[in-house]
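Supplementary Methods, section 5.1.

A reviewer requested that the exact input to the structure prediction be made available. We therefore reproduce it here, unchanged from the version used in the analyses.
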Amino acid sequence: MNKILVVDDDANIRRLVCRILTDAGFEVCEAGDGGDALERFYDDKISACVVDIMMPNMDGFEFCRNIRSDCQDIPLLMLTAKTDISQKKAGFGAGADDYLTKPFDAEELLLRVKALLKRYKIVSAQALTVGALTIDSESRTVTANGVRSDIPMKEFEVLFKLAGAPGKTFSRNQLIEDIWGYDFEGTERTVDVHINRLRERFPPEQYGFRLTAVRSLGYRLEVGP
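The structure derived from this sequence is encoded token-by-token as follows.
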């Protein structure tokens, strides 16, 4: 079961967020400031954090920076009353993955948490092999015929998502939510562009797999030339 760490100096907000997450089936733990949260983080096996910005002892920015500096690859959602763009930029700069302002809607909070957990699952599995290609989630590289190379990050995430379930069709909306995030403001055309780039990069006759369009639905990866 995923355990979510809720960090906020307002006890009422903490209780509300914890109740929303618990009712949705998550295990939760809580802390009243960033310092206490760091201790809880390292004492417990945490899957994601919901973090306020303005807190005593250690604020949300510093908490996020501490987590990221330790190479902790987990979802960080900032939940705060700060609405100006400079605060959002600072949050993302500190390592946050998403930003939700107070007051918030319970359903939106759950959607964002679930979307972040899905996105991080893309890079949590071990290396995958499809056809002649090995896709390594830790190094974010691909290897074919002993040659390792890098590809753009979003292309990598699309490829890894499809390669994790060969033959399964993923809708464009599902790919957008899992890879670009719940609040992505672009269009489904973004997925098509990335798929076309991957097709050009990995021709099926050379790599032994193809990215197939499923009309009116989305895409799937099929092993074989």
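The chain has two domains: 3-121, 128-223. These observations are discussed further in the main text.
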